[in-house]
């Protein structure tokens, strides 16, 4: 039996003939990174390889001393007999699928990805392969995303309704990727500035430096203590909810932007006034379409509904199996917000 080209090992997903790891969860010599979310880009490795647009974000996440080497889209990178290349995943700025070719075999590790249009990052590229490693975050038929424009219009209308009532709108969303997407989409509807939690400020600046057009923002921490936020939209990570930071705002109303809001009970359990279905992950129809489009004869599933997706694919004649990883275990409270 042929040895898998990519397989779980003690420190992460290992490519044995190439001697490198993909998104390792422990420090390694050579780390090939799909994107800058903390469960995929962890500190301590000797050298990091990533798509060039991801480098500034990774530098902020991993520190100025981290050795991070950017590679152009589609540019070949050889690890001995294995050729690697990076291809857009459409998840966040610089997010990549990793194409791994050895002999006559081609595997693709997709990381996290989505197919929908997003003004903040490069669009997803279908990469034909023999074996496709896919996330399964929303691998159930109930997860079907509404048009992004309609959800962003709902966010804007909610903000304006609250402002008319003199209430602050605090929108919880993930600090890297989701916040910037909300700001980019809102820029088409308004020029009224929004406020940011401090955790979002350097990441948002990295997007601006990359040339992404975003709504004007101001840091909450830079505002005077007597600042009137009664008509403001404030973006914050979920970890800020219930913290003393929220005392800056009188009578705030809270919203949550995530794919998890497709299930109404999730909003009620979290105690938010409004939920907005906006995800940076692939939904069920696009997940199945992607698997089909790659032409893969074998599919390996990671984090989320991995086992459910395997059962579905096997019932429909595809070779499939779950792949054990630690993805989704590095963000604490913000894990689900990343969706």
From TrEMBL:
Keywords in alphabetical order: Exonuclease, Hydrolase, Ligase, Nuclease
SUPFAM superfamilies named in the record: Metallo-hydrolase/oxidoreductase
InterPro entries linked: MBL, RibonucZ/Hydroxyglut_hydro, Xnuc_lig_assoc
Domain of life: Bacteria
GO molecular function: exonuclease activity; ligase activity; RNA endonuclease activity
Key word Secreted present: no
PANTHER family reported in the protein's UniProt record: BLL1145 PROTEIN, CLEAVAGE AND POLYADENYLATION SPECIFICITY FACTOR FAMILY MEMBER
Name of the protein described by the UniProt record: Ligase-associated DNA damage response exonuclease
Species for this entry: Sediminicurvatus halobius
Source taxonomy: Bacteria, Pseudomonadati, Pseudomonadota, Gammaproteobacteria, Chromatiales
């Amino acid at each position: 039996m042929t040895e898998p080209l990519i397989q779980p090992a003690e420190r992460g997903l290992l490519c044995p003939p190439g001697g490198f790891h993909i998104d390792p969860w422990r420090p390694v010599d050579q780390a090939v990174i799909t994107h800058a979310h903390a469960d995929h880009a962890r500190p301590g490795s000797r050298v990091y390889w990533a798509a060039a647009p991801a480098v500034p974000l990774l530098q902020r996440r991993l520190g100025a001393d981290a050795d991070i080497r950017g590679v152009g889209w589609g540019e070949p990178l050889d690890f001995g007999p294995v050729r690697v290349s990076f291809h857009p995943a459409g998840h966040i700025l610089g997010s990549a699928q990793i194409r791994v070719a050895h002999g006559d075999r081609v595997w693709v590790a997709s990381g996290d990805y989505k197919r929908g249009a997003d003004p903040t990052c490069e669009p997803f590229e279908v990469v034909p392969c023999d074996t496709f490693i896919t996330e399964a975050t929303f691998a159930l038929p109930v997860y079907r995303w509404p048009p992004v424009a309609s959800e962003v219009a709902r966010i804007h209308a909610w903000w304006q309704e609250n402002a008319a009532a003199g209430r602050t709108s605090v929108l919880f969303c993930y600090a890297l990727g989701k916040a910037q997407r909300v700001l980019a989409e809102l820029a088409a509807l308004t020029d009224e500035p929004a406020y940011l939690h401090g955790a979002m400020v350097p990441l948002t600046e990295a997007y601006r430096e990359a040339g992404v057009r975003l709504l004007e923002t101001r840091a909450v921490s830079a505002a005077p203590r007597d600042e009137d936020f009664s008509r403001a939209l404030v973006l914050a990570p979920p970890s800020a909810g219930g913290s003393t930071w929220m005392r800056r705002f009188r009578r705030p109303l809270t919203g949550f932007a995530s794919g998890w809001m497709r299930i109404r009970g999730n909003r009620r359990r979290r105690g938010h006034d409004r939920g907005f279905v906006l995800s940076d992950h692939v939904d069920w129809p696009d997940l199945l379409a992607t698997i089909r489009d790659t032409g893969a004869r074998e599919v390996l599933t990671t984090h989320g509904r991995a086992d459910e997706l395997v059962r579905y694919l096997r019932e429909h004649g595809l070779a499939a199996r779950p792949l054990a990883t630690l993805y989704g275990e590095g963000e604490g409270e913000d894990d689900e917000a990343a969706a």
